[in-house]
UniProtKB/TrEMBL annotation:
GO terms for biological process, alphabetical: phosphatidic acid biosynthetic process
Keywords tagged on the record: Acyltransferase, Transferase
Domain called Phospholipid/glycerol acyltransferase: residue spans: 35-165
Molecular function (Gene Ontology), one example: 1-acylglycerol-3-phosphate O-acyltransferase activity
Entry-linked PANTHER family: 1-ACYL-SN-GLYCEROL-3-PHOSPHATE ACYLTRANSFERASE (PTHR10434), PHOSPHOLIPID_GLYCEROL ACYLTRANSFERASE DOMAIN-CONTAINING PROTEIN (PTHR10434:SF66)
Protein's name according to its UniProt entry: 1-acyl-sn-glycerol-3-phosphate acyltransferase
UniProt keyword Mitochondrion, yes or no: no
Keyword Zinc: no
Taxonomic lineage of the native organism: Bacteria, Bacillati, Cyanobacteriota, Cyanophyceae, Oscillatoriophycideae
InterPro entries for the chain: Plipid/glycerol_acylTrfase
Amino acid sequence: MSANNALQVSQGFLASVGTQMFRYYEDRIPRSGPVLVVSNHRSFMDAPILMAALERPIRFACHHYMAQVPIMREIVTDLLGCFPLEAREKRQQGFFQQALHLLNSSQVVGVFPEGTKPMVTFTQPDHLGNFQRGFAHLALRATTPGTLSKPVTDLTILPMAIASLEEVNTSAVPLKLLSLFDPSEPLFDQSGWHPLVIYRRVAVLVGRPYWISHQQQMEYQGKQAKKAVRELTHYCQTEIAQLLRQGFY
């Protein structure tokens, strides 16, 4: 399925569920060019919510197991256009390769830096977990001359917050069942059920865009690479946390 069809599927899905979406700071949304969307994550609805809010198709990196489970696989890959991460030993390399290819073709890539835990462990709507730093490495590697044969030009990093104002919480499948599809994921080696969060009313707040500076590019090429990665990760996590507080005010 084409990326534009994925946007139509997302919009149609939200309409069929009856989800009310309120969008704030939409003037910050880039209308063209490569974009890396960074967002919090609690529900299977997050991908279609963000696509509908951005009004652009977004290619999301999704967990390895989602491409292994029947029905879920067809939804996330065929309908929504997500690209699943590979098994743990090849995960980082595969993520960089696929995401860089998409960004170089001026597409929008979406990442959920909190990882899998918020999806399989029920959390409160205002909760924000620690961010993994893979997305920051991606952004810096994509834009820094010398790290790639073809750097991505004019990459916008866009933090976005999803604030659930009203939702229904139920259960999907036993977590141990998912371990059959991805035995390497320790979160599946526990009792309990995979939560299913359905938004009824949701606010989507667009953060202040971020662009990699020349100084950060120089740092990433040298001995201060960790500093550049830490700064970008901190910016996105802080921006999303502030937006979440606004969403629940």
